[in-house]
Amino acid sequence: MDVKFINPFIISLQNVVETMAMIRLQTQKPKRKSSALAMGDVSGIIGMVGPQIKGSMAITFDTELALNMMKNMLGEEAKSISEEVRDMVGEMTNMICGGAKSSLAEQGYEFEMAVPVIVSGEHHTIQHKVDGPKILLTFVSEQGNAYLEICFDEQQ
Amino acid sequence: MDVKFINPFIISLQNVVETMAMIRLQTQKPKRKSSALAMGDVSGIIGMVGPQIKGSMAITFDTELALNMMKNMLGEEAKSISEEVRDMVGEMTNMICGGAKSSLAEQGYEFEMAVPVIVSGEHHTIQHKVDGPKILLTFVSEQGNAYLEICFDEQQ
């Protein structure tokens, strides 16, 4: 998988979280995901299908980051992963994927997004079922951490 | 959402689980999902995008059913939700969605499937972020239970 497929997601995630929640997330180089699974408490997952590309994206937040985002965005002090927090994660997932979609469209890669799905549960893990490579990125901040997992096969 | 969009998924789920794992799942009439969340231990999620329809499907298995399916299909006595069990859930999700895709195509509703994503974690919950109705089906058997959650908006 080419870095040109990955960078738009990284940039979009950082932009959306910084713009909406005033939290600056730092990341390192993308890694191929090995057997180790990222663990988080609330995730947004979205499928992508286009003539040249097919894949899925998952963003997993730990509770600390999800609650801090909620507080910064809406001024609400949620104490746990509530209905409102899950809604916010769904919106963020849509915005992050939408931002990457626009960048990739400019490069000539078109896809449509499916409906976001939100998963919650302490320390759940996420895994993409593909033959191709899976990329895992860890984003860190003083207000909590997030994990972006992405797989994006070029179709023949 | 028309029952014609839902029935192909119900039939495909029952067929795949009975054919592959020799477990007959009983279900009741589809319900609109309210605030109550289905809880399970391992789920397969898949996004769907087509010219007329857009949606996502999640199948959540409790540990009992997932391990019994594994035993019946592969003769392996797994004790917990392992890598192999997650792979099996990914395969089943693909087959179930693929079966429904074929039926719906015969009725003139075409869509492409994104990549399946597998979530594991005790008692996690799943929620679809859509404005339209979300349908929840509970499937029961003596060998464990499953939950099918589906949302399928007709596009304009």
What does this structure look like?
2 copies of one chain form a homodimer. Chain A is α+β, with helices and mostly antiparallel strands and 156 residues long. Chain A contains 3 helices and 8 strands, in the order H-E-E-E-E-H-H-E-E-E-E. Chain A has helices at residues 3-21, 63-74, 83-106, and strands spanning 26-27, 31-32, 39-49, 53-61, 112-113, 117-128, 135-140, 146-154. In chain A, helix 1 packs across helix 3 (83-106). Chain A binds chain B through residues 35, 43-49, 54-56, 58, 83, 86-87, 90-91, 93-94, 112-130, 151, 153, and chain B through 35, 43-49, 54-56, 58, 83, 86-87, 90-91, 93-94, 112-130, 151, 153.
Features:
homodimer, 156 residues, alpha+beta, 8-stranded antiparallel sheet, 3 helices
Layout of strands and helices, then pairs:
The structure is a homodimer of 156-residue chains.
Chain A: H1 3-21, E1 26-27, E2 31-32, E3 39-49, E4 53-61, H2 63-74, H3 83-106, E5 112-113, E6 117-128, E7 135-140, E8 146-154
Antiparallel strand pairs in A: 1-7, 2-7, 3-4, 3-5, 3-6, 4-8, 7-8
Helix pairs in contact in A: 1-3
